[in-house]
Amino acid sequence: MEEFVRIVVDDQSKRVRRNISLLQALKDANIVLPSMCYNAKLEPYGSCGLCIIEAYKDGVWRVQHACLLTGQEGMEIRTRSERILKLRARAARLLLKRGPFLKPEAEGFLISLIGQAEKSCESYPDNADLIVYGGKRPNVVNPGCVLCGLCVRICRKIGKNRLVFLGRGKNLRVGLVEGNHLDNCGRCRACRRVCPTGFINNSVIKVFTAKLYK
Amino acid sequence: MNMKEFRPPARHKYQVPASVREEIERKKKPVENPYKLLDFDVQISLRSLVEEGRLSLFPNTSRISVGMGTCGRVAGAQVIARNLSERNWENRARVISVGCLGACYAEPLVDIRTPEGKHYFYGLVDRGSLWQIIKTALGEPPSHNLWAVARERQTGVLRGIHDLELIKLENTSFRDFFHPQVRRISGRCGLVDPQNINEYAAMDGYQALEKALFKLKPRRVIDMVANSGLRGRGGAGFSTGEKWDIVSTNSDPVRFVVANADEGDPGAYMDRALLESDPHGVLEGLIIAAYAVGASRGYIFVRHEYQLAVQTLRQAISSAHRVGFLGRNIMGSSYTLEISIVESAGAFVCGEETSMLQVMENNRGEPRRRPPYPAAQGLHGHPTLINNVETLANIPWIVLNGAEAFRDFGTGKSPGTKIFCLAGDVERMGFIEVPLGISSSILVGEIGGATEESVKALHIGGPSGGIVPYNEFSLDYESVAATGAIMGSGGLVALGHNRCIVDIARHMINFMVKESCGKCLFCRDGLPELEAHLLDLCIGKAEEGILEEIEDLSQAIADSALCGLGQTAVNPVLTTLKDFYADYQAHIKGRCPAVNCKPLIDFEINLTSCRDCRACYLVCPSGAVKMRSGQDRYIVDQQLCTKCWACYETCPFDCIKITSEEFMWRNSYE
Predict the structure, then answer these.
(1) What is the pLDDT of residues B192-201, one digit of tens each?
(2) Could you tell me the pTM of the whole model?
(3) Considering only CA atoms, which of B178, B175, B386, B389 is closest in space to residue B278?
């Protein structure tokens, strides 16, 4: 038996499931929040920062990640306030700076998010380079990877556990642990299937060259 | 009937050498049972430890204690200690390495206790004063290099530095440094031998543990701590008694205690100083905490870089085991506790409590979302009490002296004392213990010895703290939070007028960029962008509107980062934007008010007071100072100048001027 709670979403009362991630619960209630690092079959991680919402607590509206929340009775949240749209656009800009992405739909999705907050951007998504990068691209370790951690989580879930995060901060990257038998990696292509940006496009071994000590 | 095996009699007699015969005889002998040690738990009473400790604390010979904390070692105390201990003293003196007394500016610091109970303090010891030390230790009257002489108020009673009274003062800085302080938990530091449990016991150590185990119920200990109003010294200031209460009322019988000694704040080292100088104080607090909440396992999470602290702590744990203060049936009671050390891998984020637990479970050190708080669901899902080292060091004092006495110092909401680490542009730096609520001017002005004019701002609480203008405000949790900074672990850096605020904010953000775990987007990618904006300001490439962008971005990071590290990482920027807005605006126009940002400053030579000594010309490494004939005899070539300040520091007549002008070209260009 599923348990349901009543919450207030954007001034409308909704009935959502309780014991799952709020992001998924809202999706079931036909309120789709944008996200890049969420997969219903994996545990939520909270990396991309697109699913942020405002939740009312102790007299203030606090910004929270919807994927890390669970529904509570009488909760009040806002998903499309101006502050949230602005923050989401900022997150989208930061994600776009990790580009260019191989999947054009990923880029289009992020640009449309910027467009929701700043109406001027909506009409010309082709000029992403000009809008976002301002002519110069930042120096990132693995261009094209948004470090959503989906590949790491799926690899752990299917029991191979080959992918890990290496480094921290600016140098964070996904690395492949090369065992004795490389053969047992690269066949299932689970990571390739979940990758939201198309960074893992061919062989995992070629994509993640683990440079532990740069 | 016991039948023997039949053997036919020997027909020949062979001669066997005597040595072989002996060996055969020896082998025929049955192996004697070796002496077997019976494993009786012999209870060593605390009183016998105290007596032994008193022998080494108050010996009939002189006792020379050399400060050998990390601060002393880097100042060269090892050479001093070696020179002193290699001397043949003919049983007239003993040389002992102790921890840090707190006066880190005076290291290497040597304290000589003569048999009649006088303490002679020698600061900034070098080879020149070795002979004075030897003469003092041998009982001759001291001549010079002496800093202070103190006497034990009652000879043979020394529980902390408060039992000493000054009788002679040669260097006034010593009194100014120690006089406003209240040394409760760090009083033993620098006087007790950290590797000797007997001395700690002789200084009223482990009395609190005995009292807690045999006279108080766990519930009573928790009530005492709650009544004292002690707040966590790690930074957030959560009530310690409340936290203990949450853990002890949990229905899960498996509970853990963890002492958090993973301090990574630049400029804060109170945990290290406590662990190096007085490890048993922390250990005793941890045992009492574990007893109060009913934990059976304790951990100390120490920073990997603190090798001396780890070494001292291991020694302390093993000696506590040896006398039965740890392990099975502590002090003969029915309580059992094991404590082990976990070394952190050296990341700043691992000091955050949830990521610390992740590291202890052999995972990647990433913070997780709270709630559930570790007090309800911590290590391996069991309730875990996590306390800072300084908090734990307060516990024995509270148990021994009562909750009411604890409130003698401090304010109503934040009672007790707090250790601060004073550094930066002050004359006397070191780790100091003062009552909470003390005025900042006493701290920086009296103890630190800085004048009102020389300090521009205070940086409180490490990289997640804030930079606030140096005004008179009281240092307790609420007042510091009202200024915009946080108390943090208590690092306090005074910034002089020659420090550029924007550059320091950039430096702090740079630190956080390197130390962010990289899990959530805003902390990982937002902070580098913020750092790039601040760098633009420092090199004079910023444009109008950048301040709004910086503020907007900082607010976004503070709002939506996942853990406390990311949310507070932008505090230096937010506080300086509020209080030093003019500095930021000047940087947009190309002027650095503190003449610190290299691309924005110029060096000029004022020839009116020049005496042609050519010092600037000779010292310049890049040949930028040029000699010419005519009116301008010396000029600085701005193309070649590397802004190394060498000419400025060399010039004996103060002819070199550093200027920072607003951009002319930008106005004309626009």
Answers:
(1) 999 999 999 9
(2) 0.86
(3) B389
